[in-house]
Write a structure and sequence with these properties.
This protein has helices at residues 2-8, 34-43, 67-82, 87-96, 101-115, 120-125, 133-145, 148-205, 211-247, 249-259, 265-286, 291-299, 305-319, 324-331, 336-348, 351-406, and strands at 11-18, 24-31, 47-53. By secondary structure, the protein is mainly alpha-helical. Strand 1 and strand 2 (24-31) form a beta hairpin. It is elongated, with a radius of gyration of 28 Å. 27% of the residues are buried. The chain crosses the membrane at residues 172-192, 227-244, 380-400. This is Type II secretion system protein F.
């Protein structure tokens, strides 16, 4: 039985392969077997040359690499390049200052690629899990224009702002989810452990119980007999949601569209997508990336399928000679203000600056909306949780009050 369980667990495989353009890439892929790992990489358009199970360190390999780690790395590299520190030496300093072994290993691998003669953009591009197409394109543009230090500073600022917005949204969503989880746990505990104690006492009295008390006692009976089913159902729903979100493209797209329609939250996600579109396009255009190529890159960075499809539609229109503002208006996705700012930017030749101002505005809107949502949710959740626990407490003490009034 232990062997079967071990086979079902996800394993980490290290791989080396080629993308559709023949560029050599390497990275890690989690899967249950080598065959499934190859299939997943093939689905991503990667031709696998080597793949092997990753060896585990005796004491573990440290924390995973998060987006915040990449943002901090970007800022550190930008600061050192602006200060005139040679690139290889900058990587050595950054590598030595890493507390996360995995991040230190990643920095060391990029440094080795640079020492072997590869450019920074090529070296970063061999780690697509951590440095996406946008990141590498901006670095490549900086290398070509001879302003790598300036572009690195722009990238660092871009990563910091996007991660700040993402962090605020995640924090706003995490709080109610955590409180709801605790409320469910407390309710199950009361029904399984506390209510039966009161029930035994009520049975010894032999008196008729109030309707509310009978409801809670009935719920306690059901929970005592079926608590494991309840836990399995909740766990199955959460697990199924995560599984289909990762494995089913249609389901992920459905969730993206549904998310924009959720009251209050949908508005925040919409503004966040507009901010990402504006910030990313402004950054790429300011770096000298052609508009059509920049739009292709932006489509993968907006984080929502509705906006991704709209950006790809804009790209097709712009590539055939349409103005950006006209192409944006045809999608019926972007706010009127954003379209007008893009129009002004095109006419004045300051498109990157206009889009940067749009991004500033919507990032501030998202920040304010998230703060307001957090302030609104806190008392509502407290009332709901307090009401739930209060109803159960009242239900348990009603018979005692009733008997006290008789005597």
């Amino acid at each position: 039985m232990a062997k079967v369980k071990k086979l079902d667990e996800l394993q980490t495989f290290e791989w080396v392969g080629l993308n559709k353009t023949g560029k050599k890439l390497k990275g890690e892929q989690k899967a249950k077997s080598t065959t499934l790992a190859k299939n997943e990489l093939r689905r991503q358009g990667i031709q696998v040359k080597k793949i092997y199970k990753k060896r585990k360190s005796l004491f573990g390999s440290g924390k995973s690499i998060k987006a915040q780690d990449i943002a901090l790395f970007s800022r550190q590299l930008a600061t050192m390049m602006e200060s005139g520190v040679p690139m290889v030496q900058a990587f050595e300093i950054i590598e030595g200052g890493q507390s996360n072994p995995r991040m230190a290993k990643l920095v060391g691998e990029v440094k080795t690629e640079i020492q072997s003669g590869s450019s920074l953009s090529e070296s970063l591009g061999k780690h697509p899990v951590y440095f996406d197409e946008l990141y590498c394109n901006l670095v490549a543009a900086g290398e070509k224009a001879g302003v790598l230090d300036e572009l690195l500073d722009t990238i660092a600022t871009y990563k910091e702002r996007t991660e700040e917005i993402k962090g605020k949204i995640k924090k706003a969503m995490f709080y109610p989810a955590a409180v709801l989880f605790v409320a469910i746990g407390v309710t199950i505990l009361l029904l399984v452990k506390v209510v039966p104690q009161f029930q035994d006492m009520f049975t010894s009295f032999g008196a008729d119980l109030p309707g509310l008390t009978l409801m809670v006692v009935g719920a306690s009976h059901w929970m005592q007999a079926n608590w494991w089913k309840f836990v399995l159902i909740i766990g199955g729903l959460i697990g199924g949601f995560i599984y289909f979100k990762k494995r089913s493209l249609k389901f992920a797209h459905f969730l993206d569209r549904l998310a924009l329609k959720i009251p209050i939250v949908g508005g925040i996600l919409y503004d966040a997508a507009v901010a990402r579109f504006s910030r990313t396009l402004s950054t790429t255009f300011a770096a000298g990336v052609p508009l059509v190529e920049g739009l292709q890159t932006v489509s993968g960075a907006v984080g929502n399928v509705v906006f991704r499809d709209a950006v790809l539609e804009i790209k097709e229109d712009v590539s055939t000679g349409h103005q950006l503002q006209l192409a944006m208006s045809q999608t019926n996705v972007f706010p009127h203000m954003v379209i007008q700012m893009a129009s002004i930017g095109e006419e004045s030749g300051n498109l990157d600056q206009m889009l940067a101002k749009v991004a500033d505005y919507y990032e501030q809107e998202v920040s304010n909306a998230v703060d307001a949502l957090s302030s609104l949710l806190e008392p509502i959740i407290m009332v709901l949780v307090g009401g739930l626990v209060g109803v159960m407490v009242v239900a348990m003490y009603l018979p005692i009050f009733k008997m006290a009034s008789v005597f």
